[in-house]
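Posting this for the archive.
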Amino acid sequence: MRTVLNILNFVLGGFATTLSWLLATLVSVVLVVTLPLTRSCWEIAKLSLVPYGNEAVHVDELHPGNRSALLNTGGTLLNIIWLVLFGWWLCLMHIFAGIAQCISIIGIPVGIANFKIAAIALWPVGRRVVSVEVARAAREANARARFN
């Protein structure tokens, strides 16, 4: 089922949104100051192309306890720069694509996926795209660690 939904996503606008993420990746490489944003662009471009079976999780969920306050502050600063330069227009692109996809009944699941990615587009630094199974295992491990 994931494959069918990913193909439907590609046909109904996923290709265009992925191209916009790749453009943001290219711009972030060219503007040397934004080079640290390149990884986030690349990660979310993968999610935009293949949203079903993958999930964007924060690195703190994958590796709890390994982040320092300095890294969190740097990530917040990068997210603010991201929001000003790239985040707002990528978010709008996903919202418009989601609305267009929701017009047809068959596109509603793909539109909902675009709305989820729109939220991620505003604040992507520190997120990694992993399979749904890896994300579920990380959440379970975090829950067990909290109760022990």
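The longest helix spans residues 69-102. The helical segments are 2-30, 38-49, 59-62, 69-102, 108-122, 132-147.
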